């Protein structure tokens, strides 16, 4: 017996971890600087850590109460009904729920190119056909209304990201509204806002009060430093919010994740420190890196480094991990996540040495 034909499916390849890379290079993990996975360099919210510790002896209990409490807290934060909050096992789980609710086999979806791989992966898992609309360097890889809406045909879902991964470009609310206005009545615009708090843009959740063709994806991984615990959610229109009960897995988020989430959204001190660090680090990278960079609203900067594979490999050998964007179709670009104030200057100096070496190598 064989699985179904998966030949058309792409593979998500995450950045390699510190311990894994250290073993390969024969180095101490403490000697590596990881700027490759857009993680929060400050770590998780301390309040979330305390909440996990406090709830650890309750991990044998299904998360009925905590799931309800977190849903209600998020609904209050966004001024929506509880039913409009679809908790999930990470933002990727929320994407799967939206695909389950919306896609019939044979439906078409539209993704930007380049893009976070899992948008297309989730759609294909649910038997959709994936089309792409190219984003171009001449427009700083922006998702403009003309470019996106001009590519929409009879697509069931249009995926957008704000800020965009891996380029960092953003979309203002009026442009989002214009894109949604130019799609058909049966097209859902899914706005992935995993990085929205790092950008100077109002959340697209605001659009849900006026329309039923936009859903917004949110994550606890970036801002709150909780990537390892896998917690995310979608905010959906009230008109079809009840679909969650028919498509979600039992207990979509764990007891520990829900307790951590409840604590994290109250930890304003950690949030402020994170946002301050991201703003500083983006500016530092763009000012001191010896390579052209793009404006970014995320917790990373995209840099035009030439031979991205050579640059990232040589930087890796010297203990600095950045993301080769060849897998995104951007062979001359590398994505550099923000780092801590005490580590980033040395890391950028190392990258500059590597860039000079690659440039002079025949």
Describe the protein in words:
It holds the Pfam family Aminotran_1_2. Its EC number is 2.6.1.9. InterPro entries: Aminotransferase_I/II_large, HisP_aminotrans, NHTrfase_class1_PyrdxlP-BS, PyrdxlP-dep_Trfase, PyrdxlP-dep_Trfase_major, PyrdxlP-dep_Trfase_small. GO terms for molecular function: histidinol-phosphate transaminase activity; pyridoxal phosphate binding. Residues 31-351 form the Aminotransferase class I/classII large domain. The chain is of the alpha/beta class. The chain folds into two domains: 18-44 and 268-360, Alpha-Beta Complex (Aspartate Aminotransferase, domain 1), CATH 3.90.1150; 46-264, 3-Layer(aba) Sandwich (Aspartate Aminotransferase, domain 2). Helices cover 36% and strands 15% of the residues. It is built from twelve helices and eleven strands. The protein has helices at residues 18-25, 46-55, 64-78, 90-102, 118-125, 145-149, 173-181, 244-247, 255-264, 268-288, 308-317, 344-360, and strands spanning 33-35, 85-88, 108-113, 129-134, 157-161, 188-192, 214-219, 232-235, 300-304, 320-324, 333-337. The strands form two sheets. A seven-stranded mixed β-sheet has the order 2-8-7-6-5-3-4, sandwiched between helices. A four-stranded mixed β-sheet has the order 1-10-11-9. The longest helix has 21 residues, at 268-288. It is globular and about 55 Å long. The relative contact order is 0.17.
């Amino acid at each position: 017996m064989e699985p179904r034909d998966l030949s058309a499916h792409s593979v998500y390849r995450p950045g390699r971890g510190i311990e894994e890379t250290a073993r390969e290079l024969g180095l101490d993990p403490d000697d590596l600087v990881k700027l490759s996975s857009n993680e929060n360099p400050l770590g998780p919210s301390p309040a979330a850590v305390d909440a996990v510790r406090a709830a650890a002896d309750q991990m044998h209990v299904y998360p009925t109460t905590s799931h309800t409490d977190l849903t209600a807290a998020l609904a209050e934060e966004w001024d929506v009904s509880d039913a409009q909050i679809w908790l999930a096992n990470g933002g990727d789980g929320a994407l799967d729920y939206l695909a389950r609710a919306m896609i019939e086999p044979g439906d078409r979806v539209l993704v930007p190119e380049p893009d976070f791989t899992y948008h297309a992966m989730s759609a294909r898992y649910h038997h959709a056909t994936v089309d792409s609309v190219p984003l171009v360097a001449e427009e700083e890889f922006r998702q403009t209304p003309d470019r996106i809406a001009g590519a929409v045909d009879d697509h069931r879902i249009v995926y957008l990201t704000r800020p965009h991964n891996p380029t960092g470009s953003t979309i203002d609310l009026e442009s989002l509204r214009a894109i949604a206005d130019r799609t058909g009545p049966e097209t859902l615009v899914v706005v992935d806002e995993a990085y929205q708090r790092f950008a100077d843009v109002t959340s697209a959740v605001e659009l849900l009060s006026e329309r039923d063709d936009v859903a917004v994806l949110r994550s606890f991984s970036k801002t709150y430093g909780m990537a390892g615990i896998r917690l995310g959610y979608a905010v959906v229109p009230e008109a079809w919010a009840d679909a969650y009960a028919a498509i979600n897995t039992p207990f979509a988020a764990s007891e520990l994740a829900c307790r951590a989430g409840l604590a994290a959204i109250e930890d304003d001190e950690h949030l402020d420190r994170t946002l301050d660090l991201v703003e500083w680090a983006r500016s530092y990278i763009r000012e001191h890196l010896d390579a052209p960079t793009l404006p970014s609203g995320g917790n990373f900067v995209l840099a035009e480094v030439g031979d991205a594979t050579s640059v990232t490999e040589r930087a890796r050998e010297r203990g600095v991990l950045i993301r080769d964007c060849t897998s995104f179709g951007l062979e001359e670009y590398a994505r550099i996540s923000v780092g801590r104030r005490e580590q980033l200057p040395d890391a950028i100096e190392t990258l500059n040495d590597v860039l000079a070496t690659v440039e002079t190598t025949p």
